[in-house]
Design goal:
alpha+beta; 41% helix; four-stranded antiparallel beta sheet; globular; single chain; 74 residues
Length: 74
Amino acid sequence: MGDLSLIAGLIASDGHLDKQYHGIRFITSDRTMLRQFVQLTEKYENKIWKSTSGFGSHRYIVYIYDKNLKSYFN
């Protein structure tokens, strides 16, 4: 349960639940937070990409495609 609590905290701080695609999106410019989130969620299907849109800073976006995990946090 500890890992799910950490994942929930990271989603609450820098992410959101995506209603349209039944997934979880996590956005950060901090590589340490990115590594932590990826390690905690490595057993779920995900996609990671780098974005420069928005406020001009480089941001990393992690999208987790897991309807059950998204429902759990919902």
